Amino acid sequence: MSAFSQDILELLRLDYGVSPEQASTVQIYDAVSRAAMAQARRRWQTPARGKRACYFSAEFLMGRMIGANLYNMGLLKECASFLAAHGLDMNMFEEIGDAALGNGGLGRLAACFLDSAATCGVPLDGYGIRYRYGLFAQTFEDGFQKEAPDDWQRFTDPWAVRREEDAVLIRFADQTVRAVPYDSPVIGCGENALVNTLRLWQAEAQRPFDFDLFNRQKYSAAVEERDRAEAISAVLYPNDDTREGKRLRLKQQYFFSAASLADLVKRYKAAHGPDLSGFAEAYAIQLNDTHPTISIPELLRLLMEEGMDFDAAFAVVCRTFAYTNHTIMAEALEKWDVNLFKSVVPQLYPYVELLENALEMELALRRVPREKKQNYRIICRGQIHMARMAIFATHSTNGVARIHTEIIKHSALPEWYALWPERFNNKTNGITQRRWLALCNPELSGLITQRIGDGWITDLDQLKRLVPYADDPATQDAFLAVKEEKKRQLAQVIRSKEGFRLDPTFLYDIQIKRLHEYKRQFMNALSILDLYYGIKEGRITDLQPTAFLFGAKAAPGYYRAKGIIKLINEIARLVDGDEAVRGLLQVVFVQNYNVSYAEKLIPAAEVSEQISTAGTEASGTSNMKFMLNGAVTLGTYDGANIEIVEAAGEENNYIFGARVEDIEKLRQSYDPKQIYQAEPRVRRVMDALVDGTLSDGSTGVFRELYDSILEGASWHRPDQYYLLLDLIPYCETRLRLNRDVRDRRAFAKKCLLNIANAGQFSSDRTIRQYAREIWSV
Length: 777
Ligand code: CR1
Fold this sequence. Notes:
Layout: H1 3-16, H2 25-42, E1 52-56, E2 60-63, H3 66-73, H4 76-85, E3 99-101, H5 105-120, E4 124-129, E5 137-141, E6 144-148, E7 161-162, E8 168-171, E9 176-187, E10 195-205, H6 211-215, H7 219-222, H8 224-230, H9 247-272, H10 279-282, E11 283-288, H11 295-305, H12 310-320, E12 321-324, E13 335-337, H13 338-344, H14 349-365, E14 379-380, E15 383-385, H15 386-392, E16 397-399, H16 402-412, H17 414-419, E17 424-426, H18 433-439, H19 442-452, H20 473-498, E18 507-512, H21 521-536, E19 546-551, H22 559-576, H23 579-582, E20 585-590, H24 595-604, E21 607-610, H25 622-628, E22 632-635, H26 641-648, E23 654-655, H27 660-666, H28 672-678, H29 680-687, H30 701-710, H31 723-740, H32 744-756, H33 763-775
Helix pairs in contact: 1-2, 2-3, 5-33, 9-11, 11-12, 11-14, 20-24, 20-32, 21-22, 21-29, 21-31, 22-30, 26-32, 28-29
């Protein structure tokens, strides 16, 4: 028996007093994880010398850790045989919840980056918050979303080590708390692999219990300090692509930024002595969106309190930090009310003013006319503009897909680009092929490896060697067989989780992402209604039966997003209850979509829905995961879709709808009512929201959705995301796709060409670009 297997047995016996046969799932999970941890720890020491990069992020959406870690360590097979020897299998870990310390793409990107950096030998550590509760758990009641707390730590947290000795104190105006780090090894895969660190801070009280108050029978007062401290890392804010100007949110941001910087300064001094002037040569810090941007005045403060003058300190700050922008949605650009800011971290405000003054001097030097200065001010109309601070006080600002970076430069922040063009650069997102192909789709991985070897696991460009196989009927058939198998497996999962019988012979058309108006799940819903009526009216006669799958969480306070979930659930009910379409259409909205669910859905997909309004989705990353698993993209010219179809061929994907330029031209004169009146199909599906066809349980939310398109609202014009403009082209493109899939081999060829050209979307490529072009590590 191997040392690994022996360790597992030993841990089960000593800690739980059980044999593998007697153990619970959580006990096995804990023992297997800790046995693997014991091995990882041998390779897990931070080297004292050499520059390191740090990824500061409020979110790390890690998903389930055990599979990926065992895979990267080369222990997966051994674990599987250990379990098999005791009548168990890896599927048992499906019960273990995800570490969902993130909302969506931004947090998942951070997780992919960690995996890629460790694999590519890039010394990169993650710094963030160890939320007590991750992203809420979602269920549906009568088609409406309900939220419940995500108590992820109940499964134990064997992949983290508490480092009491590295705790630091963090000072706020009204409280001082301890930040205690929990470290997880980030284990790379392959020959160049490193074991890097993810360090997540937990907030705790300095004095968790007041005996004096307790003795005076003031029980809740006795633990008040503890509760107030722990509130800071209690819960992840459930907003994606929107900002939350709340006091606690600012506290969270300062909490992990200040703790991480204190940690780095301490390490720096230990290695290089008290003079901090070389800090930027030791650490490169990437700010993942504006959430950690408060690090800028904090580092300035730390440097100046050590005696550095402003100019010297500012130069270190600029050379240390770089900023990634993930969205141009106005509602996501963080601004903090000056008074709120001062009431939370008063010690920082003077440093924000110093930054503002330095900016003022730069603008004068560069002769920026007075009327244009408003566009630059960090402190402006009683608010602190974090994105402006991030651009001004760093050496690099990057977007996350080519079109997104162009939009930043030329329409979102053109005045900044005009002054500092050299700071702006693009880093198109990527995904790790370890989790998103090797681990979640062993069947397809096996087929690929059988054809071209397994070099793709750490060098995704090797997928190019599949190109000749795209025309090979045997490979096409083998691909189709794999797809069928993954669809069957997904149908089983959905049967058990949702109680819904998905037909594995249907075409699987999937849209999974956060629920947001700009992502246009609503348009997808309308288009399904159009199909429904098309079939009923005899306009559509030869449809390849299609299952439409959705997965999405709506921010709990996002009224319309929740209405769209209810709408899709009602459409599902309508379709399911109608004999005339039952053999042709299925609609299912899965509950609690998360990383683990994505790992089941994506391999089974044939159609990847990427239908955001052109110019709104910064990149998207699920689009890349679908491509890698051999789905075709049905999408708009937006985000990374553009680069995807450029790589895989427009003829192998399905692009429709208005482009950014079209929308720009149309903006002033756009009138959705005109389309509604001129196009009976549009009228038919819109009216279904309000004519009694679909019921919103008398909440009025369907009427509100209807009005958001045709009437607008006080804060936006009618149909601000151009659903009606793109609806018919969308429906028609989907029908064309539907006709194309009937030639199975021709369709398989398209899928294979998507896979073969997915190499550039590996986060290994992205991370190497950050390392070389931004961090110099
Ligand atoms: C974007 O909406 C992008 C991810 C990761 C999201 C998405 O298009 O793929 O970031 N932005 O870069 C976001 O969450 C707060 O902004």
